[in-house]
Write a structure and sequence with these properties.
- By secondary structure, this protein is α+β, with helices and mostly antiparallel strands.
- The protein has 6 helices and 11 strands.
- The strands form 3 sheets. A 5-stranded antiparallel sheet has the order 7-8-9-10-11, with no helix packed on it. Strands 4-3-6-5 form a 4-stranded mixed sheet, with no helix packed on it.
């Protein structure tokens, strides 16, 4: 109804302008103020329904309902954008990735010998973690020592014991400490431990660490990667800035494909100047692990890391 009124009103205005223009030109027809056009006149109806006017009005409006309501140009754009976003997210709903049953000895060990009491994810989320050494700061059983000179160094001693008493394991890989010339104590430098792919962190005390491939029976830091369950990619980027030119950027990308393939990729960059200017300590870290199903009964798991520290 509103659309029809708008069409009639536009047609009437056009006719009035044409009629007035023609009258002024001929000089023998002058409309009086009392003249009016009756909406019911059949003579006017054919001239009002002009195809050009109708097409223009219909192209500038979108009917919302059967009542004939229309939108302005700006409202039309917003509705089109909203409809597009709705359709986009509907098409992004992907089905769960096909899960090929697999027997993982490592996952079984984590399930039975790394209970929820050993998890540190909740405590870390309530605070922050710039490196692997910060995983221990909520547990008083570990003594943390951090050097504020370059090269930056952070060490963790289980129960205050010196020397290499700690195991560091990520998934199925066990790490060994790098050689550290200024203080060759055989301990891990927690700045050298990759954290880009860490999702769950476990602090396991005692000899249970030997079950996961550790060499010491005092304590173990065990970390596991993200385990995506569908084809929706998971990504994250964390950037930390601080004094003494400290900068730390970490990013990761994880995805499970519909074929059963799983991929985790991480990259990190860190630099700091310490207390003494001009002694830059920087590192570059690249890490990835994957799972590739082979047929219905087998699968291939692999991981790799490239680390450079200057």
């Amino acid at each position: 109804m509103n659309k029809l009124r708008l069409i009639i009103f536009t047609g009437l205005m056009s006719l009035a302008m044409l009629y007035t223009s023609g009258a002024a030109q001929d000089g023998d027809i002058t409309p009086s103020p009392g003249d009016s056009l009756m909406p019911g006149d059949s003579v006017l109806l054919d001239s009002l329904i002009d195809s050009t006017v109708v097409d223009t009005l219909l192209s500038d409006s979108i009917p919302l309902s059967e009542s004939g309501d229309t939108l302005t140009t700006e409202e039309q754009r917003r509705k089109l954008l909203s409809d597009f976003e709705t359709r986009y997210f509907e098409t992004q709903e992907v089905k769960k990735a096909e899960h090929i049953p697999e027997l993982s000895f490592f996952d079984s060990l984590v399930s039975y010998f790394a209970p929820a009491a050993f998890k540190r994810r909740t405590e870390i989320d309530l605070s922050f973690a710039l490196n692997a050494g910060d995983y221990f700061k909520t547990d008083p059983s570990y003594f943390i020592l951090e050097h504020e000179v370059t090269p930056m160094r952070k060490t963790v001693s289980p129960f205050g014991l010196r020397g290499r008493r700690l195991n560091v394991i990520h998934e199925r890989d066990s790490y060994n400490p790098f050689e550290h010339i200024p203080e060759p104590d055989g301990m891990y430098d927690m700045y050298d431990i990759p954290t880009m792919l860490d999702n769950e962190m476990y602090l396991i005390p005692g000899a249970a660490s030997l079950l996961f491939g550790g060499e010491n029976s005092t304590a173990t830091l065990l970390t596991t990667s993200v385990r995506p369950t569908d084809a929706t990619p998971l990504s994250a980027l964390i950037v930390d800035k601080g004094g003494f030119l400290y900068s730390d950027a970490r990013g990761r990308y994880s995805r499970a494909f519909s074929t059963g393939r799983k991929v985790n990729i991480g990259i990190a960059y860190r630099q700091t100047d310490g207390l003494y200017p001009g002694h830059i300590d920087r590192s570059y870290d690249y890490m990835a692990d994957f799972y590739e199903p082979i047929g219905d009964n087998y699968g291939l798991t692999g991981s790799g890391r490239i680390y450079d520290r200057e």
